[in-house]
DNA sequence: CTTAAATGCAGCACTACTGTAGCAGTAATT
DNA sequence: AATTACTGCTACAGTAGTGCTGCATTTAAG
């Protein structure tokens, strides 16, 4: 692939993720326009709108998968893995703000990958519980949901907080809550 | 208004909220169809699609406002008000699952009301902090965001948990986190 | 410099949604 | 039972997005 083509491709994907996050019904014209290319150029690389969406999803899933791998959720100490995961996933969520859970419904392959990654996190939370890092009286499912939402909140409602500090705050809130001792 | 008309109106609003929550670009045809009325019937009461959306928003805002009033966020003890608010707002969020923050962008009046309600909650969180119920080292803005997300998670990812228990879990998680002591 | 890849532009057919209108039939209210 | 509000149905025009094509032009890469 030619260098300019690669640039345009990346621009379309990133712009697409951004606009689709704001409005999932954003038209391909709008994405093309915002990305600085012609509508037909987008159509040349992505035959259908669905194909473009799939590509955006795959890009996000690729980034997320790298984070999951590097966090070493299975081997590393729970506290370490948790922090590494959060610190890594926040920039991914910011770069690809598109809501995967909702939009991947009609893309079976992407949804399957998403579920696989989700299962890895479930397993990690289960391990954290088994090793006594979580309160025994709350379900891992709830812990998992809370972790997801804390990450999302921090990623998108506090975009100015740098990943390391963001991870500190998320992990601290996750484990200790916000009430005064 | 005739009784059957009122029934249909309510059905359209609730169905609209539900379908629009799943897919914000749901067509009026789809909403009408799912609500069991003809498309033109919806058009008779709501001239434009925007008008229908506004009506859904207003319905949700009305319910939420009632909860805010009854929680007595200003006068009641913080712990009491917090629990009452959460227990009340969860059913509202379940009945009107439409995402207000995102979809009200283009409805100035609804967005204004939403911001007013948001400000009331901000003030409450600020009071909780002032009265020493929250850790002094975290910003009220973060506490507010976390509270919102905990409520949303519980409302939609755990729809089978009854409001009282749901509120217990949300408040407990909010104040104490999920880490083992 | 030459070549081939990639793009912008104009155009066209197709589809889906919106918004409106008229009319006959149904159902709630008195 | 009579009235009137309300609904379903059909039809139509207007708009916007999609997907595709051909051609001239630009631009990266050898």
Description:
2 copies of one chain form a homodimer. With 181 residues, chain A is mainly alpha-helical. Chain A has 2 domains: 1-47; 57-176, Tetracycline Repressor, domain 2 (Orthogonal Bundle), CATH 1.10.357. Helix content of chain A is 75%, strand content 0%. Chain A has 9 helices and no strands. Chain A has helices at residues 3-22, 28-35, 39-45, 49-71, 78-95, 100-103, 108-130, 140-157, 163-176. In chain A, α1 (3-22) packs across α2 and α4 (49-71) packs parallel to α7 (108-130). The termini of chain A are far apart. Chains A and B meet through α8 and α9 of A and α8 and α9 of B. The structure holds a DNA duplex (30 and 30 nucleotides).
Distance between the termini of chain A: 58 Å
Taken from the alpha-carbon principal axes, the silhouette of chain A is elongated
Structural class by secondary-structure content of chain A: mainly alpha
Helix and strand element order of chain A? HHHHHHHHH
The CATH homologous superfamily of the largest domain in chain A: Tetracycline Repressor, domain 2
Looking at the overall shape, the CATH architecture of the largest domain in chain A is Orthogonal Bundle
User: What is the CATH topology assignment of the largest domain in chain A?
Assistant: Tetracycline Repressor, domain 2
State the low-pLDDT regions of chain A, or none: none
> Using CB atoms under 8 Å apart, which protein chain pair has the greatest interface?
A-B, 34 and 33 residues
CATH first level of the largest domain in chain A: Mainly Alpha
Query: What's the total count of β strands of chain A?
Result: 0
Radius of gyration of chain A: 18 Å
> What is the number of helical segments of chain A per DSSP (H or I, 4+ residues)?
9
* β-strand amount of chain A: under 5%
Could you estimate the helical fraction of the residues of chain A in percent? over 70%
Mind summarizing the main beta sheet of chain A? Answer: none
Give the tally of structural domains of chain A: 2
